[in-house]
Amino acid sequence: MLQHPPAEPGMREDEVETPALILNLDAFEANLATMARRLKGRNVALRPHAKTHKSPVIAHLQKAHGAVGQCVQKVGEAEALAWGGVSNILVTNEVVGARKLARLAALAHVATIGVCADHADQIDALDGAAAEAGARLTVYVEIDVGSGRCGVTSPQEAADLVKRIADSRSLTFGGLQAYHGGAQHLRRFEERKAAIVSAVGIVRATLDALEQGGLPCPAVTGAGTGTFDLESTSGVYTEIQAGSYCFMDADYGRNFDENGAPVSLFRQSLFVLGTVMSVTRAGSAVIDVGHKGVGVDSGLPLVWEKPDIAYAGASDEHGNLKFTPSHNGALKLGEKIRLVPGHCDPTVDRYDWYVGVRNGRVESLWPITARGAMT
Amino acid sequence: MLQHPPAEPGMREDEVETPALILNLDAFEANLATMARRLKGRNVALRPHAKTHKSPVIAHLQKAHGAVGQCVQKVGEAEALAWGGVSNILVTNEVVGARKLARLAALAHVATIGVCADHADQIDALDGAAAEAGARLTVYVEIDVGSGRCGVTSPQEAADLVKRIADSRSLTFGGLQAYHGGAQHLRRFEERKAAIVSAVGIVRATLDALEQGGLPCPAVTGAGTGTFDLESTSGVYTEIQAGSYCFMDADYGRNFDENGAPVSLFRQSLFVLGTVMSVTRAGSAVIDVGHKGVGVDSGLPLVWEKPDIAYAGASDEHGNLKFTPSHNGALKLGEKIRLVPGHCDPTVDRYDWYVGVRNGRVESLWPITARGAMT
Question: D-serine dehydratase-like domain: from which residue to which, for each copy (chains A, B) (predicted)?
Fold first, then answer.
């Protein structure tokens, strides 16, 4: 069941039912503009990752700021976007299983659909599904550039897979998928730079192998919010897949920039709004947001603009707030608190609605159409 | 958007699209029967906690095994159950906010609705909302019996709140809410026993204070899957709120019983089914279940009946499987793997459907109606 919206347009933020996912629209729009400015002149395309936002509405706003298409991780996310009018979608992931492949191929009738592969069997299955549907799929070969997760581990394996795609009936080679997930949250700029220098080296070696095989490579796609400045100026990446930049989160806030200061290019636009629901003891209070309402995989949320209050522990439906001695007066029952999620992506995936807020008022409600789209 | 079901009745389990929430129906039904047998003759009622299962279907099956009603944590969960025909619901939580209170009071026209309070202002607000709706609400006073979360912290405070309920226009005093969440996962039986002995002492002191105030207490409700044996034989608890017993999870599997053996009263009935989607390196594989698909707040999932394979790390949509040296042969692309969730409640909350399986075939699909019901 889709949950009913926790707010209505025009309502004050403090009237919103909680927990609710709040989007500061000014900050969100500023982030879209900042990314467009930052990439200008770098000769790279922006293909934001919808695993973060899961919303055709946001995809269209990103397109208005220059995005060439969207990334997703799951076929269900691709469906939600394609059915919402997004015309160019790359599944940055391997897709395994006959039913999923049939769904993916069906989508290729209404949108340009790319997908990744790191194994010959996947390519054969994709070719079969596309042929069966009478559709064409664009296939990217995923190479492991340092994360140790998916992706082939040698240039020759990549070249073999590209050759197999070229020899297929219904597939087009799209390029290399070269995302270094493990680099995004390395804290020091120098660590992130070293990781991406290494990734770029692997990409170059792979491009060399393709060239030697007479296999043109149309694109190199990858990068996230933590490192996109590096890939986008590397000379080998042609497309940037950052997702979190539109929202940001507490964990990205723990990264440092090249001057050793906390990263500050993008603004925090995403919040979970909670309500103080129990105040039975001094120095603490209970908020109605637990780990069902905010992702804790990358640490606990922060309390926004109240540095003297800590979110000290999460159970399923409750959060324990603790006050430092400097706090003047206890939190009041019913008081609203904005939390900065530790990790934006899994937090968004718990909600059905964005509550867009401007100047303290609810301006818009956007459904999170791909919420829970895991298959 | 409700996600489409990942399976159809009659399908083999290995044909189910993944990630999927699998319910072993034999084990699930055995757990319901085991709880009924265990509580027989103890003069306590069973009111299972629907924060675990979020499904009217399961609530009705529990009623058929003797449950007197259901617990929930959120008004949205109460709505999902009441609209699904559950006639007796206790919100084991404080509810704060005018819109929520109006929704709760509205439900009291179609079901018997209980709710907790630990502050006079909550009682006044509940009374106002019930009067406004022309309904009666049953209010339980929550006492802190050791968790340090919600609940009043002295018998006198409890007595004052009970008096306030008795003096209200539209509220009925239901009893004491006395749940010790912190005791459920204490590993050793002796630790759990000591915690519940302490909780029972606090309950008794509170009952004494009510008696001195001439305030009859109709019920003492609480207990979870980790400790219900203790509360149900305590002589003071009249109602048991266990939830996880119908599913179990890896974290409950780390509790030891009074003989020092891992607890084994209930069977593992809940699984997340995943598919091996990438196999590019020796000794490891990638499965399509990350922390968006399985709760990691209480530890990583276990691989079911494959002790030589470990789920070693979760990212949003991927799980890294590692093989111990004893493993014969690599996992195959497309192979299905059952995971035992670290924590059942938040895992269920990520899915729209239970896939009920018996003898390797899909028997039934049940919607998780209260998935995401957070307000």
Answer: 269-358
Minimal CA separation from A102 to chain B, in Å: 12
Q: In this structure, is residue A262 part of a structural domain?
A: no
Domain count, chain A: 2
* CA A192 – CA A254 distance, rounded (Å): 13
Residues A186 and A307 in one domain: no
| pLDDT one-digit tens code per residue, B137-184 | 999 999 999 999 999 999 999 999 999 999 999 999 999 999 999 999
Give B 45-104 residues with CB within 8 A of chain A: 51, 73-74, 76, 80, 93-97, 99-100
Residues A233 and A274 placed together within one structural domain of the fold:
no
> Using CA atoms, how far apart are residues A205 and A154, in angstroms rounded to an integer?
9
ipTM field: 0.96
Distance CA(B27)–CA(B45), nearest Å, equals 22
> Do A253 and A268 contact (CB within 8 A), yes or no?
yes
Q: Are B245 and B268 in contact (CB under 8 A)?
A: no
pLDDT of residue A296: 96
Helix (H) or strand (E) holding A307: none
B81 inside domain: yes
Looking at the complex, report in whole angstroms how far the Cα of residue B25 sits from the nearest Cα belonging to chain A: 23
C-alpha distance from A103 to closest chain B C-alpha (Å): 11
**Which residues in chain A (179-238) have CB-CB distances under 8 A to chain B?**
181
Chain A residues with CB-CB distance to B275 below 8 A: 96-97
Q: What is the pLDDT of residue A324?
A: 77
pLDDT at residue B329, as a whole number: 67
Which burial class, exposed, middle or buried, applies to A65 when counting CB atoms under 10 A from its CB (0-12, 13-18, 19+)?
middle
Record: contact A3-B76, CB cut-off 8 A = yes
Question: Are residues A184 and A114 part of one domain?
Answer: yes
Q: What is the CATH number of the domain that holds B67?
A: 3.20.20.10
Could you give the 3-state DSSP secondary structure of residue B28?
helix
Q: Which pLDDT value is given to residue A144?
A: 98
Given A248, A278, A311, the domain boundary residue is A248
Alpha-carbon distances, residue B221 vs A222, B46, B81, B115 (angstroms): 54, 9, 20, 12
**Residues A93 and A205 reside in one and the same domain:** yes
Of B118, B280, B291, the CB nearest to A278: B118
Residues of chain A in contact with residue B317, where contact means CB-CB under 8 angstroms, are: 51, 73-74, 93, 374
Q: Does any domain span residue A24?
A: no
Residues of chain A predicted below pLDDT 70: 1, 325-329
Distance CA B309, CA B319 (A): 12
pLDDT < 50 regions, chain B: none
Residue B271, classified by CB atoms within 10 Å of its CB into exposed (0-12), middle (13-18) or buried (19+), is buried
First to last CA, chain A: 18
Determine the residue type at B38: R
Q: Domain range holding A335?
A: 270-367
Residues A130, B172: Cα–Cα separation, whole Å: 64
**Cβ atoms of B44 and B239 closer than 8 Å:** yes
